[in-house]
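User: Okay, second chain of the day. Same drill as before: sequence in, structure tokens out.
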Amino acid sequence: MSITATVQNDTIRLPKGTHFPDGTQVIIEPLKPIAGSKVHALGQQLARFAGIADDLPSDLARNLDHYLHEQLP
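Assistant: Same drill. Structure tokens below.
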């Protein structure tokens, strides 16, 4: 089950009628990047590297261990 809640004054406000028993653990994840977020900034910095490796084997994902541990001459 997932719900959309709102943060007000550092408190998470559940929608009316939503109830979780005391002690229920939840995962909280923002739906949009937060301004000044380091995670968002890191993604932007790393985006410039996307697609630059164009000479990799076509089966790299399937045989990653082979390529990582292959004995080089």
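Strands lie at 6-8, 11-13.

User: Thanks, on to the next one.
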